[in-house]
């Protein structure tokens, strides 16, 4: 869901992949396939943008959806969160992908359909409320501290716990995956001292796939934030990343890129938290 959740995550560079000539050739072939795919469907058009991002049709935005729509979005968000949490709670089949010196660990698991999901575990120097504020309440500001994101726009506010967002990944040097856009429903839930952020891809007629982009789909996915051993100044951060980047990309590249994207996101988040602490 998040940041990108989520997102949260396709503005990814690959310095660790570019070291081998074989993977360089694979990368060039992938880029060629992506361009050919976009040209075939007439998507290589000039992109209409405003200073805030893409040129949305304001007449079709629904900041206050009808009651029936509200119920639909809330159900979609809650359902995605339940599915994502059930994936986390199933302890079988997880394998360590990356173990960082700072204690961050990423594990992976192959789900039915052969898609890999990734679980990041980290400790952050911030309280639960601060992280909730950054990752949900102020999600539209995420591009200010995460260079992998071009922008996130909240299209619908469905009560205090559910939103619908459109996200565009940034165009960065060395990004083999290429820019993607995401249309997602995001749901939040607070239980005792813990915060749960979940979500999944959704479709809206008012926001069709954008010219020049591949629309990726995330979810069901979630983030769990809880105080670390009663210390309200630190949080245990668990992020289940479950994403279909679409397009013409080999699974081998995608499965190396996504966990690296999680580490990049966490690094940028830590810098943002450090900056806040310094200013405070």
UniProtKB/TrEMBL annotation:
Pfam family, one: START
Keyword field contains Mitochondrion: yes
Catalytic activity: cholesterol(in) = cholesterol(out)
Record keywords, A-Z: Lipid transport, Lipid-binding, Mitochondrion, Steroidogenesis, Transport
SMART domains: START (SM00234)
Localization of this protein: Mitochondrion
Pathway as given in its UniProt record: Steroid metabolism; cholesterol metabolism
Segments forming domain START: 90-278
GO cellular component terms given for this protein: mitochondrion
GO BP: any one term: steroid biosynthetic process
InterPro entries: StAR, StAR-like, START-like_dom_sf, START_lipid-bd_dom
Main location: mitochondrion
Gene3D superfamilies membership: 3.30.530.20
Molecular function terms, GO-annotated: cholesterol binding; cholesterol transfer activity
Subunit details: May interact with TSPO.
Protein name: START domain-containing protein 1
Naturally occurring in which organism (per UniProt): Paralichthys olivaceus (Bastard halibut)
């Amino acid at each position: 869901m998040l940041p990108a959740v989520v997102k949260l995550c396709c503005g990814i560079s690959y310095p660790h992949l570019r070291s081998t000539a074989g993977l360089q050739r694979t990368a060039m072939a992938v880029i060629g396939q992506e361009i050919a795919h976009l040209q075939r469907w007439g998507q290589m058009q000039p992109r209409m943008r405003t200073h805030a991002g893409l040129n949305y049709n304001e007449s079709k935005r629904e900041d206050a959806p009808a009651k029936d729509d509200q119920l639909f979005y809330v159900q979609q968000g809650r359902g995605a969160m339940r599915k994502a949490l059930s994936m986390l709670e199933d302890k079988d089949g997880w394998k360590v992908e990356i173990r960082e010196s700072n204690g961050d660990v990423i594990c992976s698991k192959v789900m039915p359909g052969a898609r890999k999901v990734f679980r990041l575990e980290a400790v952050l120097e911030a309280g639960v409320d601060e992280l909730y504020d950054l990752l949900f309440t102020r999600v539209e500001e995420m591009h200010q501290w995460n260079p992998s994101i071009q922008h996130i726009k909240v299209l619908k506010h469905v009560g205090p716990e559910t939103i619908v967002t459109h996200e565009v990944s940034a165009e960065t040097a060395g990004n083999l995956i290429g820019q993607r856009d995401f249309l997602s429903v995001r749901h939040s839930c607070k239980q005792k001292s813990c915060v749960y952020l979940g979500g999944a891809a959704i479709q809206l007629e008012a926001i069709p796939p954008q010219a020049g982009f591949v629309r990726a789909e995330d979810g069901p996915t979630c983030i769990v934030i809880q105080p670390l051993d009663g210390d309200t100044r630190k949080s245990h951060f668990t992020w289940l990343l479950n994403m279909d980047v679409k397009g013409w990309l080999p699974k081998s590249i995608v499965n190396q890129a996504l966990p690296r994207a999680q580490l990049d996101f966490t690094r940028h988040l830590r810098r943002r938290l450090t900056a806040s602490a310094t200013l405070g």
